[in-house]
Amino acid sequence: MVDFWCQKWNLPLLLCLTGLLQWDLCSGQIQVQIQLGPLYRVKGYPISISCNVTGFTGPPTRDFQFILKKPNMELNIISTSDPEFAYGVFSGRTRNKEIYIQRLSGSSVLLWIKNLQENDAGDLLCVTLHTGGAYYGDYDDEKKLNVIADTLEASYSGSPSQSLSEGDPLQLECQVSSQTFQHTHLMVTWFLHGEEDENPRPISTLDRDLTVKPGAGFEDRYRAGLISMDKVEDTTYRLKMPLVQQSDQGKFFCKATEWIQDPDRSWTQIAHTTTAACAVEIKRIVAPDAGSFSVYLKASKGPLQEGDALDIRCSVNAQNLPGHFFSVTWLKNQQKVAQIGSSGVLTMFDKERENAAEMRAVKTSHMDYLLTIRSTRTEDQGQYQCEVWQENMNEDGTFKKIQKQISSPETVSITAKESDLEVVMAMKDAVTEEHALQVFCSVSGFKVSWQHKKDSGASFSDVISLTYEGVMKDVGSRYQSRNVQTFHSPAGNFTLELGASATSDSGEYKCIVSEWKVQSNGEMKKANTHSQQKAIIVKSYHTGEMAWRADQRNYQLSIQAQPTDTHFTLMVPRASKQQEGQYQCQVDAYQKDEQKANIISNLLAVIVQKTGKYSYLFKK
Fold first, then answer.
1. Which among 28, 152, 242, 371 could bridge 312 via Cys, Cβ 3.0 to 4.6 Å?
2. Signal peptide: which range, if any (predicted)?
3. Distance CA 114, CA 459 (A)
């Protein structure tokens, strides 16, 4: 071992032995540290790896070497002091500056590899050269470098171009996925490369921690709800702009970036890719003559099915109308649906839909008004128009109608939706107390929840529900301290389990399955609901069998189970001197046939003076 180190550093044996002895006595003074590993980096991308040295004396600038250790060999990569240090496999890349060392300070450097290759994988060794004197500490450090394949994919499958008018809505989607075996996070950004932009501008980013950040210049529209970005299911990233502007004209594309967290807890970008672009043309709306205004109506693009969301937008284009006010009314087949008056008061003409929060109308900007039907019905189809009155305010605060404009009609078609949603529920008729109570529910395309009621006169209360993504949420208040679990199989079978059941868990259980659908605005809406219910009995512990050690004719036992405790009453129909004495109640507690506790009550003295009937209550 001594000979190896002496040969490695090309030192005389005596000096080497002296240095090693002093190093052993003063171990740890010099310390080389390469970036914590193992590191995972993607083939074809640039990487940087840090290395530094501490605890040294002498010149403030240290020299470094990087060596790649393979099985049974060491390959020199690059050195700060020797330009001929690299072996042939790396010499061409170092001469072309594809591999180089960036000095951060006299004692700290970065190794850069511009284009990582598969053969770069191995144990990466960082060495600092000895500058004279005795050897103190560790002069090298190594970490594992793994080179993995690039599996990041991003695609845009929509139309390559769109033609819109000012105020129209724009919705774009891109699909992003990665198949790497390592745990990585994805960041997705929508960009706009306008006609006058030197570089593309980020519109909105869904960061690796799933937070949305608007790009520079788009912050105000993001806060006003006029720009949004959502992750839909696992791979789809949706950009929505309800009201496009002339400045939005240009090419839209999506960029995906893959990040990995290194052992030092820092995040590093390891891969990126961009999608094809969608060229968006935005036509300018010609302003009306001075003193007049015009009205435009735009409805959600079809086809629409029952349960989909419907947006009907009214835009008022006016100029040179000082002190003007507008009242806006939505019409369907010439019948009033909703109205926003000049003072901003909202009137919905279908109170049932308004109370059910299925329909709303808002003023989204100075001259834009939006009617939304959150869950459409077939009767919502027909011809829609906007009727707009220009009004002036009188001195007494009332409004006077001046002139009216009606938009061109737009036909909305809604088709009925058939559902093949089914629910099948299964469970045992009875289960012993303290055993797990399981309720099985088989469904597909759905959101699932369970309810329970104690008896026929009670109402159902929530036990637990699953989101349409299969995530457990909303545990009922009565069950938050209980061991409640749900299991989901790929075949669409759901199981509710109540661990350590109690007699109060007896009763009927209902499985409720709701079918949900993604709407055109990205929100999830309930389409259909099915349910099934079934009864179960939880038997009291331990076996329910009754055994007598005294003459049963002289005693009777009554048991009353309550939600929080159980009353056992021992009755003596014909008391006599023979029943005189001290009585106790002993309770043995079992869980799944295993005795968990044994408790004995206080002593109760009974004296029989006359013939009669007495009863004694033992409560535990």
1. 371
2. 1-28
3. 68
Tell me the two tokens of residue 548: 């007598």
SS3 track for 304-348: EECCCCEEEEEEEEECCCCCCEEEEEEEECCEEEEEECCCCCEEE
Map residue 270 onto helix, strand or coil: strand
| Closest by Cα among 464, 508, 455, 518 to 487 | 464
Residues 6+ apart with CB under 8 A from 245: 166, 282
Sign of CA dihedral 512, 515, 520, 523: positive
Cα(319)–Cα(119) distance, integer angstroms: 68
pLDDT, tens digit (0-9, with 9 covering 90-100), for 538-549: 876 755 667 777
Residue with tokens 């990569």: 77
Strand pairing partners for 238? 173, 230
Classify burial at 479, counting beta carbons within 10 Å of its beta carbon; exposed 0-12, middle 13-18, buried 19 or more.
middle
pLDDT, average across residues 69-88: 92
**What is the per-residue burial (b if ≥16 Cβ within 10 Å, else e) of 281-319?**
ebeeeeebeeeebbbbbbebeeebbbbbbbbbbbbbbbe
- Percentages helix, strand, coil for the chain, rounded to the nearest 5? 10, 50, 40
For residues 34, 38, 43, 45, the Cα torsion angle rounded to the nearest 10 degrees is -40
Query: Per the structure block, which two tokens stand in for 46?
Result: 């640039």
In one-letter notation, the amino acid at residue 11 is: L
3-state class (DSSP) for residue 62: coil
Least confident among 223-227, 241-245, 286-290: 286-290
Structure tokens at 485: 């679990």
| Site of tokens 């990995």 | 260
Residue type, 586: Q
- Report CA torsion sign: 318, 320, 321, 323: positive
Cis check: omega of the bond before 242, within 30 degrees of 0:
no
Pairing relationship of beta strands 304-305 and 414-415 according to DSSP bridges: parallel
0.85 surpassed by pTM: no
Phi, psi of 457 (to 5 degrees): -85, -10
Give me the torsion for CA of 163, 165, 168, 174, rounded to 10°. Answer: 30
Q: State pLDDT tens for residues 472-488.
A: 667 887 887 788 888 77
User: Residue 97 burial (CB < 10 Å; 0-12/13-18/19+)?
Assistant: exposed
Other Cβ atoms within 10 Å of 543 Cβ, number: 11
SS (H, E, C) 370-425: EEEECCCCHHHCEEEEEEEEEEEECCCCCEEEEEEEECCCEEECEECCCCCCCCEE
C-beta atoms surrounding 430 within 10 Å = 12
For CA atoms 259, 261, 264, 265, give the dihedral sign.
Answer: positive
* Residues 617, 610: Cα–Cα separation, whole Å: 20
Alpha-carbon distance 49 to 112, whole Å?
7
User: Taking CA 503 as the corner, what is the angle to CA 509 and CA 424, rounded to the nearest 5 degrees?
Assistant: 20
Q: Which residues pair with 170 in a beta bridge?
A: 241
